[in-house]
Amino acid sequence: TLAPAVMRALHKNRTLRYGVPMLLLVVGGSFGLREFSQIRYDAVKIKIDPELEKKLKVNKMSLESEYEKEYPGPAQTWV
Predict the structure, then answer these.
(1) CA 37 to CA 23: how far, in whole Å?
(2) Which residue ranges make up each domain of the chain?
(3) I need a surface site. Which of 2, 16, 23, 26 has the fewest CB within 10 A?
(4) Mind listing the pLDDT tens digit for each residue in 12-70?
């Protein structure tokens, strides 16, 4: 039959053996990156509950405010 001879020829072909998987990886990676980057932009568009947003604004915390709570004196006492 013809099938074993064709399969042997395809198995020996370097383009099919290495090129096709590489091409699938590049094209598939492109689609995957597009989907993951789209998630980033979709997350920005999501609106949160106004009540939760107000609560988050009240609890604003910064590094400087926490430092002032810990060390209430002047910041440059080492001079």
Answers:
(1) 21
(2) 3-70
(3) 2
(4) 888 888 898 999 999 999 999 999 889 888 877 887 788 887 877 777 777 888 888 88
